[in-house]
Structure prediction request, 597 residues.
Amino acid sequence: MATLIDPARLRPATPEPEPEPHVRRTVGSVLLGGTSQGFVLIWGVMVVFPLLWALVSSFKSDPEIFKSPWGLPAVWHWDNFERAWNESHIGTYFLNSVIVVCCGVVLTLVLSSAVAYVLARFEFPGNRILYYVFVGGMVFPGFLALVPLFFVVQNLGLLNTYLGLILVYATHGMSFSVFFLTAFFRTQSKELAEAALVDGCSHWGVLFRIMLPLARPGLVSIGIFQFLGMWNEYLLPLVLNTDEQRYLVTQGLANIAVTQGYHSDFSGLFAGLTISILPVLAVYLVFHKQISTGMTAGALK
Amino acid sequence: MHHGKYRFVFSLLLVPVGLYAVFVISPYLQAFSIALTDWQGMTADSHFIGFDNFVKLFHDPVFWTALRHNVFLLVSIPLVIVSLSLFFSAMLNYQGGVPGSRIYKVVYFFPSVLSIAVVGVLWQFVFEPRNGLLNGFLQAVGLGDLKQIWLGDGKTALGSIMAVVVWGGVGFYVVLFTAAMSAIPRDLYEAALLDGAGPWQSFWRLTLPLIWGSVQVAIAYLVIGALDMFALVQVLSVGPGGPDDATQVISLYMYTNAFTYGNFGYAAAIGVALFAINLILTLLTFRLTRRERVEY
Prediction:
């Protein structure tokens, strides 16, 4: 019986002077408040500092990077960016990334919303199985499929093509998108769709004129999420896209860093780094609410 | 009506399911059959060799080195990241949030939106022995003795790469945990305060049990992530995988086997082994971290 009594509940019964714990608590909380702010600030600095350092370094000249790694540049070298963009081909890589990622995001949204809509709204034999086939893709590590995927793409003649990468990105983004959008379509009212059907609207009309416009918030969230994921993808292009002309920005940057090492164009490399960091940070700062909720939504449910 | 419905369902599903089957399902299935061959890739010359690849794998010292590194990472990364994230989340959430907690959450999240490859290139500069940020900082604060060749030294290389994972990972889990913490009703804390619980106690007895679901998910994510590690090791380490296999991990070993040596059969077997380990660990993580679900 005694084990059932929570020791914390016995506390008030012990004769303890009332003000004493109160005082201790406020002193403790003031102290804790102060130190907590300190730690929180230190981590913030640790996160921002390397990024800021890279940004400032990208405006320096090569000797300056070596001689005064901490100071501000004496002259702001905007030409570093020009060199990185043109000579190191970061510009080409950037455009390659834009093409592949934008097409990939749109295609994965189109494919996934078609599947999700059908799975959420229609009863047919095999509905559950199909749902698990798609969602099951989330638990398989990409590494398992890597070798065969290379040969599938090769056999279709799609190695080193935009189309090959776009199709692979789009299909590999489907598992999570179908999972997310099916849940989204399920929450939408059936009555509206049925009313439209009764009014003589076709199934296609219901989908395009009612359901998809209503699903816009969901499509936007998943779109941003997929954009970031695809923009940051590294392994797939490394394997499927080995033509230097078609390198994506992550791949191109890593390649420059690895092959050039520390020998040549330091400042240009920092400029390239800045070029590849700033757009994603900008997208994040604009959409940060949707992104953090979107990214953590899967984990919280 | 019914006829139209099935035709509609079929025509909507045809293309997506077809593409998904070609680019997702078929590679996953083929992985298992390729793993049972001695395929070298470029020729059609491939023989069924049963489980020989797995036997070879079992006797491959590099595989065991890689596995040991992965095991080290998958224990230490979740431990460090979850502890730090819980600590910062509790601090940010303390008494309804320190001033500027919203800005901190946005800033902490920065590394999560960057490509791992880009993060790798950035940290290459941080770790650079002569002019890098880290050694420069140590010199500046008078700790010059602690300067290291970080990535070039077998003793510090794996730890350095792990530090990058922690730097990049904490923000995401802070956002995850603070979201979970803010869902806890405030009056529970007030009740705990009235019962005489200090901040420490209310964290361990109240906050942690109530967000345990999120912690569990975080651990599972991080364990799976620690099994991958490909991009960072490939960009950051010398070799890659070096010096002298000091940073070798299974994913990199598989990649090298497939796309450098052309041992596709063997690489597929490594992939299948990685998948099996992955599956076991995910199940184990959920099993070991299982607690009574607390409703509130």
Remarks:
- Confidence is low (pLDDT under 50) at residues 1-25 of chain A.
- Chain A touches chain B through 100 residues (CB under 8 Å).
- The two ends of chain A are 37 Å apart (CA to CA).
- Residues 89-260 of chain A form a domain with the MetI-like fold fold (CATH 1.10.3720.10).
